[in-house]
Recover the amino acids of this structure.
């Protein structure tokens, strides 16, 4: 056995343990880095010559053993836009590559990360602490994502257009003890016009002498043109074989009012329109169902009992905040109580995530060994679920790293002793001539 071979082997051991120490140092330094994945050390032996009767020393090499697929602990964050992935998968992110035409230009390469400490920057983009821009699927007007293309998520702070009222729902009981001499019952209701302005209306109920169990409804809109009174319609209860106290007929409509056909089980609806300055606005007053004790009824009592009166439509809304839902929908919220889904955040998985190429800022790139990137909704096709308002901690275990540190130190020291001993033996060999 060559003494030089022994020294070379020991020196390779020193190099390998130095690299292992470097991996440990990197892990400890990033023990608090969001989304960091630790690097273990895999020692590989290389043999010079080995038979059943002879073995010559070779060398050892330290190779990195990446632990990209081992999850760190999700930690709650005060940032409502922070996200962690519970399970397999990565966020798709983009890296800026200068400016073009007054806007950001992004690197054509695709990057992936588990660092979900996202926040909105001054340009409206969602960016994590390492400067990577979150990508998602654009959503249409109904909130459905377009899964054919990913793009950087940018929050639009434009106003939410007002929605004119189209339906008014009424649930109440008209007193059956009222007579033709009883005072009319006036119910105010507010609706929104096409500009988002709140417009007052009144529903006036007047009991009729004939036919019995009938009321005349008058709808008035003071700000409508050309006249405040939109028309009248008679509402009859308990006739035509329908249950007592339930709506049985809508008849005698005047003005712009029209009642639906009286068929048991069908909706009892009064349709009308009003012009608040932007043209005719079609609306419907929903009174429940013909022959059913729901919505508007006429039962015993001397007073009008209003159970529910509400209308749809919303006023003009200004940007209020942005939030992320459990399914990855990025919703823009407005101060009128409305929200709109603008994007959906997908989760990207790989066959072998440990073979991804590491980049700066806890980012990764696809390699041939990692397999193709599979982009899918969260919690589907093997991808993990999103934990909103949390970030993924580093998967480094300090106690384990210090144990490895002790072992690496001892192994390094042992290799230095071999080098020292081999050097002394070489010196003795050289001194044999004296």
């Amino acid at each position: 056995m060559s003494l030089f071979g022994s020294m070379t082997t020991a020196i390779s051991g020193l190099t390998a343990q130095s690299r292992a120490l470097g991996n440990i140092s990197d892990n400890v330094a990033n023990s608090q880095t969001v989304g960091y994945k630790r690097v273990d050390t895999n020692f590989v032996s290389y043999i010079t010559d080995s038979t059943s009767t002879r073995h010559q020393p070779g060398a050892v090499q330290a190779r990195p053993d990446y632990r990209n697929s081992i999850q760190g602990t999700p930690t709650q964050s005060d940032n409502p836009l922070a996200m962690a992935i519970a399970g397999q998968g990565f966020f798709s992110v983009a890296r800026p590559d200068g400016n073009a035409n007054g806007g950001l230009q992004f690197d054509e390469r695709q990057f992936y990360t588990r660092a979900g400490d996202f926040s909105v920057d001054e340009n409206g983009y969602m960016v994590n602490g390492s400067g990577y821009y979150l990508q998602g699927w654009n959503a249409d007007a109904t909130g459905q994502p377009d899964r054919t293309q990913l793009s950087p998520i940018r929050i639009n702070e434009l106003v939410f257009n007002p929605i004119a009222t189209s339906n008014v729902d009424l649930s109440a009981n008209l007193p059956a003890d009222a007579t033709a001499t009883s005072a009319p019952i006036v119910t105010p209701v507010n609706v929104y016009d096409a500009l988002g302005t709140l417009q007052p209306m009144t529903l006036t109920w007047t009991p009729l002498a004939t036919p019995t169990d009938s009321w005349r409804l008058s709808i008035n809109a003071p700000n409508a043109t050309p006249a405040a009174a939109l028309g009248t319609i008679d509402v009859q209860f308990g006739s035509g074989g329908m249950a007592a106290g339930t709506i049985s007929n809508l008849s005698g409509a005047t003005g712009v009012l029209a009642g639906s056909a009286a068929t048991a089980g069908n909706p009892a609806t009064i349709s009308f329109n009003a012009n608040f300055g932007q043209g005719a606005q079609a609306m419907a007053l929903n009174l429940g169902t013909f022959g059913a004790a729901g919505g508007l009824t006429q039962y015993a009592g001397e007073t009008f009992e209003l159970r529910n009166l509400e209308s749809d439509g919303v006023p003009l809304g200004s940007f209020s905040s942005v939030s992320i839902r459990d399914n990855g929908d990025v919703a823009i919220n407005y101060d009128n109580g409305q929200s709109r889904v603008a994007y959906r955040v997908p989760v990207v998985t790989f066959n072998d995530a440990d073979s991804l190429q590491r980049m700066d800022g806890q980012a990764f790139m696809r390699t041939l060994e990692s397999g193709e990137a599979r982009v899918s909704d969260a919690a589907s096709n093997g991808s993990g679920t999103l934990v909103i308002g949390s970030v993924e901690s580093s998967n480094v275990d300090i106690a384990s790293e210090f144990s490895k540190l002790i072992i690496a130190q001892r192994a390094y020291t042992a290799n230095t002793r071999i080098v020292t001993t081999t050097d002394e033996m070489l010196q003795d060999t050289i001194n044999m001539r004296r």
Summary: Residues 398-430 form the longest helix (33 residues).
